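Hello Y.,

Per our agreement to keep a running log of every chain we model this quarter, I'm adding this entry. I've kept the format consistent with earlier entries: sequence first, then predicted structure.
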Amino acid sequence: MVEGGNTSKPDKTEFGECWKTTWKTPYIMRLALSAGIGGLLFGYDTGVISGALLYIREDFGQVDRNTWLQELIVSMAVAGAICGAAIGGWISDKFGRKKSILLADGLFAAGALVMAFAPAPWMIILGRVFVGLGVGMASMTSPLYISEASPARIRGALVSTNGLLITGGQFLSYLINLAFTKTRWTWRWMLGIAAVPAFVQLVLMLSLPESPRWLYRQNKVEEARSILEKIFPANEADDEMNALKLSVEAEKADEHAIGDNLIQKLKGALSNVVVRRGLYAGITVQVAQQFSGINTVMYYSPTIVQFAGFASNQTALALSLITSGLNAIGSIISMALVDRYGRRRLMLVSMAGIVLCLVSLSIIFLKAASHAPKISQFDINFAPNGTCPSYISAPKPSSWNCMSCLKAGCGFCSNAYSPGTCMELTTKQRDSCRGQHRTWYKDGCPSEFGFLAVVFLGLYILSYSPGMGTVPWIVNSEIYPLRYRGIGGGLAAVSNWISNLIVSLTFLSLTKGLGSAGTFFLFAGFCIVGFSFIYRLVPETKGLQIEEVEKMLETGYKPKLLRGKPNDRAQFANGMFAKTRNDKTLLVLNTILLCAVPPNQTSVTKQAMGSSSSKPVDINSVKQSGKGV
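Predicted structure for the entry above:
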């Protein structure tokens, strides 16, 4: 998945149990799928703009000429999602999960219709903000509703349907983009049709109940019980009610302990060394996920394909469909590998693959630029007023090729890989070129290396999706102490959205300033930095209980290559303490060894001596009291 809220990772056996349970009680699947449409909307919005942007540029000349305007159209949905995610949690807690989802549907549908009927680019931007608000709220509330309305034994499997629907929505968006390429209103249909699933979810949610957990917290105990009786067999409903009571009481106790408002929670979280170390890991993987460049591919995939020399919008969309399909396949692969090989290893391997693919793409685009077709000096098909002004005034026009023409802000008209004409970038010249049965290039030059670029784009997705695509969300669901999980996961999610905004808002400007090769090489550099931070800061959490993760972070995590050798006397004594707690004779030896170490190197813990506390013990007090001797 490219973006979204925390989701639980299902155990392998949960899928079989999920099938059995939902077959007996279809109402559970109805709840999950109805709420999961929010994930479908999320994925659809991520993918649809990539194709729609191609046709928006054709209809609005100012958008085609201004890179920053294209970036604004794409990234305003991300900006709206940040705000939606920020207020979505408060709305769902204050007014309920169901009402929050209904509001998200209303915003999404309104935004889709505003974009479909937009008379000018600023209206498209406004519609993107509305859609983003809906996406942000849905990303927080839909998984939460599914989780709270699902039996615990199949919760992971049901929540994972939300993630699958996100990638499914992305794939669907590319199919719909391709389907509307031949229609009259192209991008208006692409963006406007998103109102249909939003309306469907709104109707379905009106007939569904509120989350039983939220109802119980609002002291609506009987309403909560009536919903649980629809979800669970009669002999289990009472047990679930008791479990819900204990869970809510424990949650309220934790809230009382860490504070009732956001400022108190933040202070408590940041003053806790375990939470801080968890945040180092959690925020690192979320920022690395976005700066691997994934959303440049999801938001601008057809544009990147055109950079590779495939000028046709239909061809670009068809090839982009492959990348979206590979992303969905990668999510399924992740489910099979993450519990077998671990979170940390999967992310490191994923990042290594991403770096190799990005460097390869950089080399391919460099080769394509150096082998671009030449400008024909004598093209009788076009009058001089059709040529590019910069080309006419160039001191050495004979040295120009297609790439020189595009960098000068002009268009290149050619038959495949043969020399062509550098023409002024206007609709009239474009139509004139196509009237001669030639291809009009304005984003990338025709190249024999173009196919390789698409291949490595696919390999990039396959490297990203099973590792960096899904694992950062899993790590953030496991890395924080239970009482700080909400605030920790929220801070990490905000870092993900902000990084997403930065990347989507600057990608086209980077390609204009650095070129395609330079931009992909820059992202490869970000990934190398991300790899080193993941290696240093992110521990393995596979198979560990919450308490075990907390203990590991309390002592501080270091990867094997940075731990050093335990060769000093204090470390040796600590090891002896841990291994010989109950042996009085060796305990005497341990104390003698400790007494021989200078005071600034002699800090051991009560835990090493068998105590449950982790406060350090002053070795001088041990000497004076003679304990253990």
